[in-house]
Amino acid sequence: MKMKPRLHLKLQGQFFLYITGIVLVVIIFNSLAIYYFQKKLLLSQAEEKAIGLTRTLAYTSLNAILQDNYLVLQSLIDGMLDDHEILFIAILDSHGQIIASSAPERRGEKLQDELTKNALSAEKILLQKEVSEPGHEIWDTAVPIFQLNKKIATARMKYSLQDPFRGLIRSIIIISVTAIVLSVILAHRFSRSISRPIRETVHLAAEYGRGNLDASLQLNRQDEIGELAQSLNKLSSDIKILIEEKIANENLVMMGEFASYIIHDLKNPLSGIHLLADGLYRKIPDDSPQKKYSIEILLAAQKLHDFVERTLDLSRWNKPNLQVLQVNDLITQVSKEITADQITINISLDQYMPFVYADAQLLTMAIRNLITNAIEAISGPGVITISTHWKDSQVSIKINDTGCGIPPDRLKTIFRPFFSMKKQGHGLGLAMVRKVMILHQGKVEVQSTVGMGSTFTLTFPGNLSKYYQVDGKP
Known about the structure:
474 residues; alpha+beta; Beta-Lactamase; Helix Hairpins; Heat Shock Protein 90; five-stranded antiparallel beta sheet; five-stranded mixed beta sheet; 9 helices
């Protein structure tokens, strides 16, 4: 047997049907409840009204019956016919003969139906119900008329409930239809307000899947959907950072592989070229035109030799030699070794700085590289501030300069190997700093403003800050 395919509704349709269904159930339930209680109220009011009118007719017609004054009786009955819910009024004698009625032509007619017999035999107010041919309920009220405890007549009235019930049903229908229309409109708007941002969120996720991590979603909402959009936007930036870090790490790995296979083969020839160039430089007289060429060869060879050594260093580091050291002492020592004209180096050290596990040689090289870069970024007078901080079990070192700053589009690429903003740079200094921090399970961050300077921050995790200083000893 072939199964029929199930109908798959989109989220907006599901919300719409769900909300509309709930509202319809509530409206139907309330309508039935209103009809039930209002019907009881109408029946109670109608009963009080019918009995009250019949009782009034009985009391006011007593004297006219005793005086056999038909005109007064007829005028009393005619005065009650203004109420369109009254179908028939009659005053019967003790044998069931009509003395006066709302139909004057029926005067003298004797009624012998079952309801009349019940009314004539009743010694107190009687309320009977009958159903007319169209199915409308009619109340027949009878009130006996006494003279000196002797029953002399009966006042009867037939009262219809068709119009009150019709008005009640019409009011409930109007209210229900209005509520249904409004609920459908509100359900559509509500389902649309929920489903549309979700569709936009799905589209944003699809853009991320296609690699467009610059896509974002701007929703001015303070609910869960707004939080979801903010989380996705943050996820995009986090993914971009992770990708950039992965690229940087892959570049470092590539540098290691490149150095392992090639640099060793280049080192010996370069050393020979450097020695030959140095020997040629020493043998050529100072006044010879070839002197300047030998100098250029020697400088180029030296530059290549430095590049090879740096690359070897970058590829050689795989595991730091951790030992207990005081960061403040290391910074003080490095700052004493560096001097620069027209540049003031300020040091601000946290006096509660703990001892940490770190590789002194690698950390010294990283700090020295950052200070050297800060000096080269300043043209003319300037200030370099080196500070240490200990907060939330994390040790951080900040190096701030008042140099030229780094353009925003370069901030994401400055840690990549071979990327340099300097004409004479190899692009390995910041890559080395990054690898040092990776080896220490830390991170390096930069904040920069063009024309105002840059701040590099080295942050070490709390698990490397287990030794705290007490009385100057770890």
